[in-house]
Specification:
Layout lengths: L1 H18 L11 H28 L5 H36 L29 E7 L4 E15 L2 E12 L2 E12 L5 E12 L2 E4 L4 E2 L6 E6 L8 E3 L1 E2 L7 E11 L10 E10 L8 E6 L3 E7 L5 E8 L3
Antiparallel strand pairs: 1-2, 1-15, 2-3, 3-4, 4-5, 5-6, 5-7, 5-8, 8-10, 9-11, 11-12, 12-13, 13-14, 14-15
Length: about 325
């Protein structure tokens, strides 16, 4: 009988907590900031879980010295993990200062979308092939982006499939399918990606994969119809998995790339700052040329850049 009473009391407490939680609270609650706090708790919990799993593995190492070294490293990783969580939290809070307190909940009506993607800064004509090359911290990076004629229906919207492969020093590192669609106003929406990471020819991770409408993920805008300096917008929204952001920082910006066809330099580029609270230390500036799309990506921290070296327009 006492056990039944305890269960009833526990259920009552949980129900009261749910009713009073910020997720179902009335007006006046800053749901954007509350979301940041929720993800911070989840991040710290994940760091703790990783720590204890590692400690369990440490205990099964053959020598005392190995177990000790393993434990020290686990503690350092936990501290580093907590620091990353706090940095991500700070980045999300900064975003909320601009986007406001409202929840992120874009309304997707399939009737508001068209069958072609012809935004001048992000045209996706089936058959188009973009090739990028550059030197990064990892080595010589080579990226090929192919706009396919395949589509996938997501949230009732027919999205164009774009394949993106990344090789470093000749070895395949990523193979991704992205899904995009354009609305009647000309905004290009990002509906998800299936991302495969490779090491030594083997798939080692699906990290970063998400689909709008699945597990709370929501689409974002990859390119605005009429970008204006200062615009800040979400490109994707899958908490803890994919949270890319973009901010317009310049119009009619010049940049030079080694692309032979059409020849650079480009003098009328849209320049955006693209970043993610998941990687607060990464800050990229991207340049988009009208009629082509992305022609250059610059890592502001390292100075490394990825340049469009070949462009084959679709038929």
């Amino acid at each position: 009988m006492r056990g039944k009473i305890y269960i009833i009391l526990l259920a009552t407490v949980l129900m009261v907590g749910i009713i009073n939680s910020p997720a179902v609270a009335g007006p006046g609650i800053n749901l954007c900031r509350q979301t940041s706090q929720d993800v911070l708790k989840a991040c710290k919990s994940g760091a703790r879980n990783n720590y204890w799993l590692t400690i369990g593995k440490c205990r099964n190492l053959p020598t005392r010295s190995e177990r000790k070294a393993c434990g020290v490293q686990a503690q350092q990783d936990r501290i580093s993990g907590f620091e990353d969580c706090r940095a991500q939290f700070a980045a999300r809070q900064e975003i909320c200062k601009t986007l406001g307190r409202d929840p992120y909940n874009p309304i997707i009506n399939p009737a508001d979308f068209v069958t072609v993607i012809d935004n001048p800064y992000f045209p996706l004509t089936p058959g188009s092939i973009y090739v990028y090359d550059g030197i990064t911290e990892k080595g010589n990076e080579h990226v090929e982006v192919t706009v396919t004629d395949e589509t996938k229906v997501i949230l009732g919207v027919a999205c164009v499939a774009v394949r993106d492969t990344v090789t470093v020093d000749g070895l395949l590192e990523e193979d991704t399918i992205d899904w995009y669609a354009q609305d009647v106003s000309g905004n290009v929406w990002y509906f998800g990606e299936n991302s495969l990471s490779y090491e030594g020819g083997l798939i080692v991770s699906l990290e970063g994969s998400w689909t709008a409408g699945v597990d709370g993920a929501k689409p974002g805008i990859i390119m605005k119809a009429n970008p204006q300096v200062g615009n800040l917008y979400r490109q994707e929204f899958a908490l803890g998995t994919a949270e890319d952001m973009a901010q317009v920082i310049g119009l009619n910006q010049p940049t030079t790339t080694p692309i032979p066809n059409p020849p650079g330099p480009f003098n009328d580029c849209l320049e955006t700052k693209e970043f993610s609270p998941l990687e607060p230390d990464v800050n990229e500036h991207k340049f988009y040329a009208s009629g082509i799309g992305n022609v250059q990506t610059v890592d502001v921290t390292t100075g490394n850049h990825l340049d469009l070296t070949s462009f084959t327009p679709g038929p």
